[in-house]
Amino acid sequence: MYATFWALVPPLIAIVLALITKEAYSSLFIGIVVGGLFFAGGNFEGTMNHIFKDGLIAQLSDPYNVGILIFLVFLGIMVCLMNKGGGSAAFGKWASTHVKTKVGAGLATIVLGCLIFIDDYFNCLTVGSVMRPVTDRTKISRSKLAYLIDSTAAPICIIAPISSWAAAVAGFAPEGTNGLTLFIQAIPYNYYALLTIVMMLCLTLFKMDYGPMAVHEANAEKGDLFTVPGKEYKEEEAPKGKGKVIDLVLPIILLIVGCVLGMLYSGGFFEGTSFGEAFANSDASVGLVLGSFGALVLTLVIYLLRRVLPFKDCMACIVEGFKAMVPAITILALAWTLKGMTDSLGAAEYVAGLVDKSASSLLNFLPAVVFVIACFLAFATGTSWGTFGILIPITLKVFSLGDGSPLGLICVSACMAGAVCGDHCSPISDTTIMSSAGAQCDHIAHVSTQLPYALTVAGVSFITYLIAGFVQNAVVSLLIGTVMMVALFFFLHYSLGKKTARS
């Protein structure tokens, strides 16, 4: 079964079960068990060893993964502090006097998501905690909030030169290639990310929804923000502190500054490395942990000095913040383990073979082919970064960046765009999981409502990459893609409007 289609079966089983049962934990675990059975050839002892020793334990002892989990815990504690101290409530009251419509709340969420481009995990939880009171008050469903968060996480990070994603892509560039330069040159060709921004703006400005999201938004107008029975989040407790807006804004600024400095430090900036190289060489896991810990300590000191919260309540937030992150940590641990099962079955080698076979005969079609393969691989494995690591080196072996043809650059960007698209659609993606956690939305509800929107943008992006393979001009292709996106949106808007009028 190694390096065959069977390598992709375990994650596909997990995804199908999650969409059918609406339950993520058991679906992920069943996928893991199937992967273990495939790897061990049905042997019971081998299966158990592979699931737990080579899988779960190995993933939870990986330094990078542990760093991400610690970062999530620190973020959870900070969110708890801001809520209990009254900073979030104060911001909600302030926003209610300035943001009074659904359009305003949606645009504010998009703008904030675009501004927090350092890291997708940081984006998801921060935007969610800040905007929940505002979107709740303007009757935007939690599923719609989760979609806006998810769409300003990975799609924004993948076109932001100063981000953990830029550092990851730069790290996958082959020897002799300036990874950060490659990343920046690929941004104009990243059609999925750019068209996702167009999609969000159209949905928000024209107040139109379709698919399952339309049901969630209609229910939100009636007061039901969740739609899924039994999956509602409890009302947050009234704040114990008398915090002001500054008690929300200042911790977020400290987080942003701390995370930037942490990533620069992990890349050797303070040892003489240039700014660009430091970001390219940074360890996002270490940088985010250092930055978030520094921000957490400073927030605690500020809260105590300003008497926003007493010391006892500040310490209680440590436990409560950890508890709030347990569901997200559990799903992440299972998703990472499932990815480990997929890796051990040779999914990367199987996909690499597919790309290699198609490269010689489909040169001008290759950007679209790479986009589809990257979508499928990221969807099945739940990881964008793993997809970068598999496809970018293969793409750069097929094309030389110095031969004067932009096809290689277009294909690298198609790989990045497809990876983000697959990640955006996948229920086992860590970014999708974090978006659900940030919006405090049922995870499967988020996936099912987001999927039609993501697939709409994916379809237009695929056609745009077909055009780009022949036109080989970033601006012309993007303009055509944007026109197609807006035209399709107006078609849907007109069609759904007529349908509603008839009913």
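That was protein one. Protein two is written in the same sequence-then-structure order:
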Amino acid sequence: MRVFTFPDGDVAASILTCMPDSEVDVMYGIGGAPEGVVSAAVIRALDGDMQGRLLARHHVKGDSAENRLLGEQELQRCAEMGIEAGKVLVLDEMARNDNVVFAATGITSGDLLKGITRQGNIATSETLLIRGKSRTIRRIQSIHYLDRKDPALHPFIL
């Protein structure tokens, strides 16, 4: 058994648990609610499983005045949405069906995607495209001729 730590990129790490060619089987961590919902949608699309809890910031990041203020706002939003903070949510509560399409392009290289590389006026990128209904996983490797891009972008990319 091997243990990996993921300091950031919890969506990528959670997706790795369901990729057929990955060595990652389980992930345990703390992340934001938006990342949790995106992770849940992709994990459901890939027939995985997930649980999560919404915890207020001051309960997990330290009880400072700023964290308490933000945490109270988070708890208020949970109440307004009818979600009980601290309750364990199962996958069906975070992603109701597998009718999702997920796309991500690597900017920097990581365990899930290669980052953008450039040689002269040519750049390469890798995109992961997952369709939940058919459980299709596509890896798209693209070659970009930078001098053919919109002229307004030339000062930034050339």
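The mean pLDDT is 92. Keep this in mind for the problem set.
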